[in-house]
């Protein structure tokens, strides 16, 4: 099944562009599904960064987040795309996020990795198991 981006396309693109806009105070957007459907919608946006966003991630859902991290020292912004699969989320939408990035953004940007992790943090279907990520000094979200 593919993600339906058409129903709420304008709101999705507007939220994405607002996060990208350095003049905007909004620095994250959270996307999720409408009920049990494959229709993607904007769930929330915010101005208080990763801590505020983390509080909105739901352990019972599959969600996608787009976050701008501003570096005040360099003046450079970094952008992070999060594919969140809570413990209670279903496997029905696993693997759809890359298609969503490619179809929604329009910038030609693609996701570099999309894999679900099991309860021990090991990848299912992806090249980076938890142990490898930790060995490279990367932070693994639990």
Describe the fold and architecture.
The chain is an alpha+beta fold and 142 residues long. It has 4 helices and 6 strands. Strands 2-1-3-4 form a 4-stranded antiparallel β-sheet. Mean pLDDT is 75; it is low at 95-142.
Give the helices and strands, then pairings:
Layout: H1 9-20, E1 28-33, E2 40-46, H2 49-56, E3 62-70, E4 77-85, H3 97-104, E5 116-117, E6 123-124, H4 130-135
Antiparallel strand pairs: 1-2, 1-3, 3-4, 5-6
CATH structural fold name of the domain at 8-85: Severin
Largest beta-sheet details: 4 strands, antiparallel
> In CATH, what is the homologous superfamily of the domain at 8-85?
Severin
According to DSSP, the number of beta strands is: 6
Assigned CATH class of the domain at 8-85: Alpha Beta
Mean pLDDT score:
75
Gross CATH architecture of the domain at 8-85? 3-Layer(aba) Sandwich
Largest beta sheet: what is the strand line-up? Answer: 2-1-3-4
Overall form: globular
How large, in whole angstroms, is the Cα Rg?
Answer: 15 Å
- Poorly predicted sequence stretches spanning 5 or more consecutive residues: 95-142
GO biological process, one term: positive regulation of axon extension
Domain ADF-H: 2-142
Protein name: Putative cell migration
GO molecular function, one term: actin filament binding
In short:
This protein is an alpha+beta fold.
């Amino acid at each position: 099944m593919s993600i339906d981006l058409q129903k709420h396309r304008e709101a999705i693109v507007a939220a994405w562009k607002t996060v990208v806009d350095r003049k905007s105070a909004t620095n994250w957007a959270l996307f999720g599904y409408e009920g049990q459907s494959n229709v993607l919608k904007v769930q929330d946006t915010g101005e208080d960064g990763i801590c505020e966003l983390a509080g909105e991630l739901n352990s019972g859902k599959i969600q996608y987040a787009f976050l701008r991290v501003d570096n005040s020292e360099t003046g450079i912004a970094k952008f992070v795309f999060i594919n969140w699969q809570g413990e209670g989320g279903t496997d029905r939408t696993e693997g759809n996020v890359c298609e969503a990035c490619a179809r929604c953004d329009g910038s030609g940007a693609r996701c570099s990795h999309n894999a679900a992790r099991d309860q021990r943090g090991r990848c299912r279907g992806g090249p980076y198991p938890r142990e490898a990520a930790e060995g490279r000094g990367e932070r693994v979200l639990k």
